[in-house]
Amino acid sequence: MAAVTQHLSTRHLLGIKDLTAEDIHLIFHTSDNFKEVINRPIRKVPSLRDVTIANLFFENSTRTRISFELAEKRLSADVVNFSASSSSVKKGETLLDTVNNILSMKVDMVVMRHPAPCAPKFLSEHIDANIINAGDGTHEHPTQALLDAFSMQEKVGRLTGKKVAIFGDILHSRVALSNIFCLQKLGAEVTVCGPPTLIPKHIERLGVHVSYNRDETLAWCDIANILRIQLERQDIKYFPSLREYAQYFGVDRRALDRTGKELVVMHPGPINRGVEISSDVADSEHSIILQQVENGVAVRMAILYLLAART
């Protein structure tokens, strides 16, 4: 592994594209330390005791929001939670007005999820706080990609030369794009697999392979990262039915057994059981889905800690 640097090269986490491989290794090294913290009897450290963090979620979220809030509290930060559904955004207040009002309360860091691509970047150009992108539209979800790669590395070792397949709704997924950027920076080989209607045009230009055959892709890969079918983002029908999708692209036990090898199976959640993944795979010895959830807190603690050090 490359030598671990001591500071991130950026004061925001807007996307994986902005990170170097050294940044990623530093985040992983720091995550290892924080994973020890959250597994000991006293799971709290005073690292961010004087830091105030605002969680701004303009889209619904359960896992990401809880994971960030838990990470912040484990670091002893002061936490302000903001939901657009119960705010003045509903009355016409602009994004910048909302954030400036919150910053006037002396907030140091902002964790933001927003339906508009590049909304966190817009904020970073107009306010002085550290910005962490918790998902912007169908663009990026950098902390999910980092925890995914950290979980992979924990399971199989260095990712250089490893073959990772991303299955599912690539077209509407912010997780897919961030995963591709992160895995490539760590030296992995990436294939995306799904029906042609859910694979973005010209995605090969990102240096990934494209497959429309589930069984061939499972036989090729070492790790299968299975994404959710995002029906809420689909304005037209991209495949005939969920049953047909499950038949041809869902990962079930029979499909895994046909590979004749041990595969690592992942899913960022929430899971549509019986559609993109069956319960006997999600709950099997192949799955590291629960490890992803645990690692999410440690990785987000590391990111918050490292960005606070850059202030």
Question: Could you name the key traits of this structure?
Answer:
alpha/beta; Rossmann fold; 5-stranded parallel beta sheet; globular; 4-stranded parallel beta sheet
Molecular structure report:
With 311 residues, the protein is α/β, with parallel strands linked by helices. The chain folds into two domains: 16-141 and 293-310, Aspartate/ornithine carbamoyltransferase (Rossmann fold); 142-288, Aspartate/ornithine carbamoyltransferase (Rossmann fold, 3-Layer(aba) Sandwich), CATH 3.40.50.1370. Helix content is 39%, strand content 14%. It has eleven helices and nine strands. It has helices spanning 21-38, 63-74, 95-103, 119-124, 142-156, 174-185, 214-220, 242-249, 253-259, 279-282, 289-310; strands spanning 52-57, 78-83, 109-114, 130-136, 163-167, 189-193, 209-211, 223-226, 264-266. The strands form two sheets. It has a five-stranded parallel β-sheet, with helices on both faces. It has a four-stranded parallel β-sheet with strand order 2-1-3-4. Helix 2 links the parallel strand 1 (52-57) and strand 2 (78-83). The longest helix is centred in the last third of the chain and has 22 residues, at 289-310. The protein is globular.
